[in-house]
Structures are given as structure tokens and as C-alpha cells.
Amino acid sequence: MSTLNVRVTTFDLPLSAALVRLTGDAGSLAGHPNAALALADAITWTREVSDYSGNRWNCWQKHVAQDVAGITWQEFREQVLVHNPSLHETGGMFEAGRLYFLPENCLPANVAPLVAWDRELTGFAGNLWECWQQQVRGKVIGLSWDQFAAQFPDQNPGFGNQNSRLQPGISYRLPRTLGADTFYLAAYTGVDGMCRWEGLPAGMYRLLVEADQYLPSTREIEIGQDGELTVGIELEPAPVERAAGFVEVKRDKAGVPRFFLNDKAFVFVGVNLRGLLHYGGDEWKHHDQNVLGASQPSDIDTQLQFAHEMGARVVRVFAACKHVPPEVVGDRLEKVLKTCHDKEMYVIAALTDLYENTPFHPQGDDGFYTAHGDGLTLINEQWFKGEYIVNYQRLLDHLVGRFAGHPNIFAWEIGNELKLDNQAEEFKRFNHKVARHIRDLDHNHMVTTGMISTQHVHMEPRPDLQRELYSSPDIDFLTVHAYNRHLPGEQPGEHDPRKGQKIHKNDDSQLAAEVGKPFIVEEAGIDADKSGRRGAAIGDDMKAWFERGAQGYMQWGFLATQFDNGDGDRNSGMDRGLFHDDWDELFRTYRDKAGRLAEQAGGLSPSPQQPVAPSNGKTPALLTFKAGQTVFTTKDVNLRQSPNGTVARLVDPATAVTILGESQQTNGFVWWKVRIGAEEGWMAQATGNTTLLSLA
């Protein structure tokens, strides 16, 4: 007899809780004590039981094992929880007086429920009960122990009675279900991805491996005589279908991978609000006062309101904070998501930070940072190779599990600018493992890395490794962090295969095209001193990146508060006069770009159905806007001081405006009070047959 070991993996990582079935013919498995009859549709979970109390094993022994064929104990143990959700409330214990559903046999119409006593058994020693347990139980439909014990002497005249023993030198006839001659063993993999069977005769078998959220895999194997065989099975994740209302990646009609929200293309400008969740936290009174010590809780609304008015659709935050536990982080994220929901904005949540000099890593992770020769203190090798489970995964599990159903999460980000020097393979495995774990917890939201680029993690000599990293089906899009693209020092270096190309050194646009996924410029900015004027330069930078296929562009160091709350950036940030004096210019640049992107996105995919207000007789059927919503001018539109009043100025097409309240009808037109930057006024929604204000 031989032993079979099966190891199930995904991306070379062990996969636990995978169901492994080993199927063989009667000659191979009919005599195995743990095998069951393999017959499709032989089991239905329709038997009602309400008088049993006890655990699953005793339920199996009392109600299933002796009477039901075609199911193993390993399968019953897991499936009974699926068919009886109330068992989760009692820790898997049955309670008398409650109704439960157990398996029973139900033969398909094309299989005759007949038993034939023509299976030959030789070499067996034991009593009749032992013969039943090892050779017959679970393998013959419609035959109970009592029936077997009564019929066995008639089918084997020389046997005697139930107290007699089967002798190894005598042949006996056993029952089988006609038309069903295949049997199987079942097991679930452990945390090491392994399962094991012993006592297998030599022969041909088939392995079938299944796991929730993975594509099944089958393989024919041959087991030799008196040996041990180990088989590895690699499962591929199944395609993910996200619920309606969540941003997802699809291809447009031209085959270009893009973000879509309810089948409408989602191309955006956004901002980085690194410490947004933690503004005004009590911890800053005692720790890291130079980071967010001057921040106030009201800064959350201020930052999001100005970003919203600028046309930003996505904000990026650093979710972790070393001073507070995951539950507090979750409460803070919930508050931010509520405000974003009201403004139709979306959040990228980074789950840790590479750098020790910020507090934006999980509580307890201080010990996993090591000083480097370049003066930086970064997450160390031990963390990437498994220690991240201690604190990081606890935070991840809490946040991802808690907000898996919240539509205003844009994506979960594994971490800000993570890298593991000189260990690119290990870094790839880490990202794959964490991304898979997030996907297991949350089918709705996208996952990304938060990397500067593949060049930053030293993968530029290994294009194969770059593709392997981002080919994971659990990583939905690429990130690029790119500043000052006009400077020679930011272009591909001496040892970069792209040397000489007039692109940013962190440009992974070609890689994105190769793996068929979108990319975003997740951090962007241009350095300037106090007198710098950067509107045109940022406009040119956005133009270049969007032409290269970027689906989003996010300003770093956005600071709209009147005072320095610690979340700005003296070099490449954007603020209202604290470090730079080009706020208005940058604000207009981003707002105008947001309007043009929204206009372009409308032509990439059909717009979703929108509620309409009654026609006023002079205009088309009109959309109903709501306060706080961002809309865009479709033509040159007059901004007036009052409904149908004095014209304040002419507003250009594709300008983002914020709705401030309910509409008014004057002289047959629908008027909305709006804000453009710091300027307020009134605009007509439409005139004649022409719509003037639109969502896209």
C-alpha cells in the first residue's frame, strides 16, 4: 500500500481549506475504510431533524454514517455548517428543539436504485460489523447496517451468523450499487496547504481540487506499489464580479483597460491627504506633535470640501497610525467615508508606510524598522517574510472586513512606497500573498500596491519579474509616484534599459499596457519656492501622463486649511499661501482638467440612467442635482448674481461647479445656486433644447 501527499498552492503560497477529492474505481477505493460512493446528485440536504443535541461528530455517527452513501465525514463536517447557518451561533453544536437539515440519498432518474451482491472480497479478516464499517458503509445507496447484516448470510451461505468472523482465506460477496462503480476520498488542506492519504493500492486515480474563489483543477495521477508520492496543485483565482456601485476595471469598446463606475468610465484627478483620518486626534498632544500636532477635527471637512470643489474624485489617505488600535482607525475611516459619500468622492486607503519617520504604520510595528546606510529607517526583511502578520494583518483584517461593503472605498493599498532591497522575488511573493488575502475578505474593492515604480524596487533588469508582479489577478492597477518629470535627474538613468527616452524614470505605462491593466499617477507634484508659479507646468505634466494612458493623477501635499496642520509639503505641495503662492492657479488647472476628463469619460461608455425632474416646457427633461454635487458646464454659461439677474461673468465650457442648494424656476428656466472656487452665483441648467449643466 502507498501514501499520497497533496500540496495545494496559489502563486506558490499554501492554500488552506481547499477540498481535495481522490477518485478511483472499485478495485482501488471500494475497500478503503474512508472512501465513499462517487455518484453525482446522490445527496440532498433535505432530511429534517429536530430532536438531536450534541456535536457534529456524534450527529454524523448517529444520523448519517450508517444510512447515507456518497458523503464522507470530512465533507459533512464542513457542509453541515453551510446548510444550517444557525450552527454558527452555537459553535457548531446542535440543540434539541431546533430544526436542522441533514443529508440523505436521492438517486438521479437515470440510475436504477438496485443493489447487486456481486463484488468479490478476499483477504479480509474481521467480524461482520468491521466488514460493514470498512468495506460497505457509505458505498452502497439504499442499504442500511441492519439490511446488510440480515442479507449477508443469505448471499454467503458458508458464513454462519452475525457472530461469525470473516476469514482471510475465503472469498465473500459484497453489495454494490448498480451503475455506480467509482469511489472517492475527500480531505481539506491545512494551513500548510497539505492533505494526506495512506493505505492506497497501486493504480490510476483522478485528483479534483476545489476552493472558494478559485478555479477548480483536475489531474490524472498514477500511484505505484508500496511507495510515497507528493503531488503539487496550483489553483488560479476565479474572476471577480463586483457588486453594482463599486469602481472596477473593465475594457472600453476599444479594448483599453479603464476604471468604470456603474458602466461609466471613471477618469479622475485627485489629492493626497496623508493624515486625513487622524486630524485632531488626542495622540498628537503627546506624540509626534510636529506631524499633525496643529491639526483640528474640522480640517477633515475643510480639506474634502476644497478638494471636491477643485474637481477631485479620489483622495488617498494613510490609514494606519502607530498610536491607536485598529478599532479606532476604523472609526476614523468611517467618519471620512461618510463625508466622502455625501460628496461622491472615493478613498484609496494605504495600510502602512515604508518609512519609520512617520507615524503611519500599524500599532506595534515600531520594532520592524531598521536603519539603512542612506540615513533612512525602513521596514525590514523580517516583516516582509512573515512578521507583518503580527500587527499589519490585524489592522488589514479589521478595516477590509469592516468596509468590504462600503462603495466609497476606491481601493485598498498594500502600503506606501514599499520595497525590499535586493530581494525582488520575495517582494513579489509578499504583494501576491497580501493581495490574495485582501481579495478573500473583500470581493467588491480593487487592490493596488502603492509602489513608486518597478524601477524603485530594483526590478528594471527583470521585465519578467515586473510582469509577474502585476499579472496577479488580485492586483487591479499599477501605481506611479512621479515628481518633477521635466528635470534630467528624474529621467531614466545610466543602467535603465529605457535610457534616452524622454519619460520619467518611474514611468510604468508600458508595463501597464503589457499586463492589460490601468495605471494612475498616485503622487505628483513640481517643486517650487515661495514665488513659484506652477499651474502651466502641472497642466503640461497631466497632459503628458494622460496621453501615456494614466487613468488618474493625484496632487501630493494638498493643504486647504488656513494654518499649517502638518499635512502639506514645502517643496511640491499645494497650499493657500503657507509655502506657495500659486493656489488659485493650481486650483483652476485641476478644476479645468477635471471638467475635461468628465466630458471625455462620457463618450467612453453609456451613462447610467438618472432621475429626471418634470420638464418646464422650455427646456429638455432635466436631471435633479443635489447640494454639494459637482457638475460641469457643457457650453459657455453666464454666472449671474441672481436667477435671471445681472451677469457676473462668462464661464468657460467644461468648468467644474458645485451645487449649493435647491433649484428655483424663474421665467421658465431652472436656476441653480453654484460656487466656482470662492465665487458664488446662479446658473441656468438649460436653455431651449441645450443642456448647460451636466454630471459629465
Characteristic terms for this protein:
single chain; 696 residues; alpha+beta; TIM Barrel; SH3 type barrels; 3 domains; eight-stranded parallel beta sheet; six-stranded antiparallel beta sheet; 14 helices; 42 strands; 28% strand; elongated
Question: What would you say about this model in short?
Answer:
With 696 residues, this protein is α+β, with helices and mostly antiparallel strands. The chain is 24% helix and 28% strand. The protein has an 8-stranded parallel β-sheet.
**Helical residue percent?**
10-25%
Shape: elongated
**Can you list the strand order of the major beta sheet?**
25-24-21-20-19-28-27-26
Q: Could you tell me the radius of gyration in angstroms?
A: 33 Å
> What is the number of E strands?
42
Could you name the CATH topology of the largest domain?
A: TIM Barrel
The first-level CATH class name of the largest domain: Alpha Beta
- The structural domain count equals 3
Largest sheet: 8 strands, parallel
CATH architectural category of the largest domain: Alpha-Beta Barrel
